[in-house]
Amino acid sequence: MERIDISRKNDIKTLVLQDFISRINVNPSTGLTREDAIARRALYGSNRVTPPLQCPSWICCLLPCVTRIPSMVAYRQALPIKATVRRQSDHFKGSHIVHMSPASLVYGDVVEIYEKDVVPADLRVIKCSYNCVVDQAVLLPHFSKVEKASQTGLDNGDQEESVRILNNHGLEGDLEQQAHGHLKQVSVWTTNHDSLKSCNILLMGTRVINGTATGVVIATGDQTQWGQLISLNRWP
Q1: Which of 52, 158, 204, 231 could be cross-linked to 154 through a Cys-Cys bond (beta carbons 3.0 to 4.6 Å apart)?
Q2: Average pLDDT over residues 18-42
Q3: Which secondary structure element, helix H or strand E, spans residue 147, and what is its range?
Q4: Measured CA distances, 144 to 48, 137, 233 (Å)
């Protein structure tokens, strides 16, 4: 398998859907085969984001307070804990749903996203419900730590309030304009070259607060928007 330059995410994001599927080389109805996933993991590595504070493991054991500093607390809160993936079956024609660790995701995986899910990798949306909304506050430095932390435990009242705010800004209106805040209406259309603003991109660490979506992985680990922000010391 030839390695694809996944740094060209803007190109992948703006391709028409059929060209995008061809570039990624995946059947969105069935997902990758097990063999494809193994080969892609060997090419691109695991879906692990390097934490903002790095130190030898023996130091972390001796100094447990290291894990309690704000940047590490924010990092652990933003980590996705599960991924729901569509994979081709080895035993019968068609596909099946697999629940796996987000670290096992690879470029090209077809991922199902549900309400309250933390997005487990950078995804291009290929299908979504009309009411799908994502909260991106965790990636935006100008939002307070309290607002970022709320992503880990939104109750129904919080979700309703977030959707109400988005409605007040015009849920039926211009999608690009909605994407300038921390709430973004999700769609299958490219609306901006900035991944934070484009409605057809779901970024790792953000949380879907309403609706459902299906997306294809376009970046994993340190190649994700979140991973790049950390590597540039721009997060949290």
Answers
A1: 158
A2: 94
A3: helix 145-149
A4: 25, 9, 17
Given the structure tokens 């070259």, which residue do they identify?
193
Run of H or E including 97: strand 95-100
Classify residue 109 by burial, with Cβ atoms within 10 Å: 0-12, 13-18, 19+. Answer: buried
- Using CA atoms, how far apart are residues 136 and 215, in angstroms rounded to an integer? 17
pTM: 0.80
pLDDT digits (tens, 9 = 90+) for 115-152: 999 999 999 999 999 999 999 999 986 544 434 444 44
* Tens-place pLDDT, residues 89-114: 877 677 899 999 999 999 999 999 99
Q: Which of 189, 73, 69, 68 is nearest to 138 (CA)?
A: 73
**What CATH number has the domain spanning 13-231?**
2.70.150.10
Q: In this structure, what token pair is assigned to residue 176? A: 């690009």
